Amino acid sequence: MTLQYLQMQTERFLLTLKTESQAVITIKAHKKVIVLGAGISGLCTANRLCESYASDEVLVLDGAEKAGGYIQSERVDGYLCDRGPNGFLSKEPLTLEWIEELGLSGELVRANEASAHRFLLLEDGLVEIQPPPAFLFSPILSVKGKLRLALEPFISRKTDDAPESVWNFASRRIGSEAADTLVSAMVLGVFGGDAHGLSLAHCFPRMAEMESKHGGLFKAMLAKKKEAKASGTSAGGPMGPGGALTTFKEGMGRLTCVAAEKIADSIELNAQVERVTYDQEHFVVTCADGTSYTADSLVSALPAYAVGDIAWELEGSIHDAAGKVECSPLVVVCTAFDKKDKHYDAKSDPGNPRWYLVDVKYVKKFKRTVSLAELKQCEVLEDMQLVRKGNRLSVMPVTEQQWEFINGML
Ligand SMILES: Cc1cc2nc3c(=O)[nH]c(=O)nc-3n(C[C@H](O)[C@H](O)[C@H](O)COP(=O)(O)OP(=O)(O)OC[C@H]3O[C@@H](n4cnc5c(N)ncnc54)[C@H](O)[C@@H]3O)c2cc1C
Q: Measured from the CB, is residue 299 less than 6 Å from ligand 1?
């Protein structure tokens, strides 16, 4: 390695080394703390750190062009679209305190009443999840499933400390049908994950506590309702704190945008971290462009998959375990009720929509196009929704038998 040049700047040292392979390594100034990731976790951590340290002693590194991580909001053709989260529950005092400190309290808006309606997609379409007594008459669970759910107060609490998945916990307490239908859907909605593979204690600590402290979910909810009534607050459900679903007038991205602006001098964007080492005194963080930064302390606010991608040359590091955490692919689709749009359906109410998205995935490409006229001539397909009068949707159900028949026509 040949030392190419050493340049001293007034406010920071810049040392550039050139290897035989021409790769350039630039070591920038030493920091007290480096935070990896400028998503909400990294931004919140760095905002707190900047209260104790000067802004040039804290550095946040992020590989993206913009801070905020998953939280991004944008205006598209006049519509406000959230690319990730579209709200948070207003119950946690620390969240509200931070929002107040950032001067954003006046921009908070509560979700409208339609958002309180939750639906499950069953075979026959959307079914609203309603609280008892209406739930007793809903088709969401079979009679057997409802009876098993009603036995919850009589199920004894778990006595060992063995880790338990969310699904195992739910099936033990409310039965496997409710675990499959209600809990798996809820877990999918919150984590985009599989209830069989997620830990109850880590994902829903409050639910675990409801059993350990009160002996069960119903008993705990009754106790919490009593407490909440006495204190005039909201009890919340088993999944987490109560409170209203809340966002900002210009979307959730407003929070990360203002949090990043407040510590703009401490953020380095387009800084994709590739390697972290420890030289017995300092952490050395190296980015994809060859730039290295050193620090006394290091905070990782990266998602698990990103932790697994970085080369950590540290003892006792958790990166191997982090690399094994599975992440689900997610697609965010923003929809709107626009009276001016030609597809607007006045009969579809936001609180009780008639239209919904279905999961569609690529299966195979047909060798040729099969026309509607051709399908209409096939007696076997006379019950197929597509060939019936007035049915002209872009995505329509096909039975297995119809699918096999159409495949045979190709
Ligand atoms: C579609 C969707 C909807 C959601 N809805 C909600 C909701 O309604 N309410 C709610 O509370 N939560 C919701 N969540 C969860 C919430 O968005 C996340 O929990 C939260 O944003 C995570 O923030 P974070 O800072 O921990 O991570 P991230 O937002 O993932 O930030 C990590 C940052 O690290 C950076 N990075 C990654 N690798 C590297 C690297 N090698 N070097 C440098 N930088 C790197 C990334 O660019 C990113 O900016 C939702 C999540 C998704 C995806």
A: no
Ligand 1 neighbourhood includes 323 CB (under 6 angstroms): no
List C-alpha distances in Å: 20 to 6, 16, 24, 289.
Answer: 17, 13, 10, 17
| Domain annotation covers residue 182 | yes
Q: Which range of residues forms the domain containing residue 24?
A: 2-71+253-323
CA angle 288, 291, 296 (to 5 degrees): 115
- Please indicate, yes or no, if residue 84 is contained in any of the structural domains: no
Distance between Cα 41 and ligand 1 center (Å) = 8
Residue 132 lies in a domain: no
pLDDT of residue 171: 97
Q: Taking Cα atoms as reference points, which of 191, 200, 166 lies closest to residue 303?
A: 191
Burial class (CB in 10 A: 0-12, 13-18, 19+), 237: middle
| Number of compact structural domains in the chain | 3
203 lines ligand 1 (CB under 6 A): no
Residue 307 resides in a domain: yes
Q: Count Cβ atoms below 10 Å from residue 359 Cβ, excluding itself.
A: 6
Do both 235 and 284 map to the same domain? no
Residues 160 and 197: beta-carbon distance below 8 Å: no
Tens digit of each residue's pLDDT (9 = 90 or more) over 353-389: 888 877 777 888 888 999 989 999 999 999 998 998 8
Q: How far is the CA of 106 from the centre of ligand 1 (A)?
A: 25
Find out whether the beta carbon of 193 lies less than 6 Å from any atom of ligand 1: no
Enter the tokens of residue 295.
């620090």
Same domain, 237 and 295: no
11 and 44 in a single domain? The answer is yes
Ligand 1 neighbour 238 (Cβ under 6 A): no
Decide: 240 in ligand 1 pocket, CB within 6 A.
no
| Residue 231: strand, helix, or coil | helix
403 to 361, 366, 375: CA distances (angstroms): 15, 12, 12
Phi, psi (deg, nearest 5) at residue 2: -105, 130
Q: What φ, ψ does residue 276 adopt, rounded to 5°?
A: -130, 125
Q: Which of 36, 43, 66, 70 to mutate to test the pocket of ligand 1 (most atoms within 8 A of CB)?
A: 70
Helix, strand, or coil (residue 263): coil
- Are 229 and 276 within one domain? no
What are the pLDDT digits (tens) for 269-282?
999 999 999 988 89
Q: What is the CATH number of the domain that holds 236?
A: 1.10.3110.10
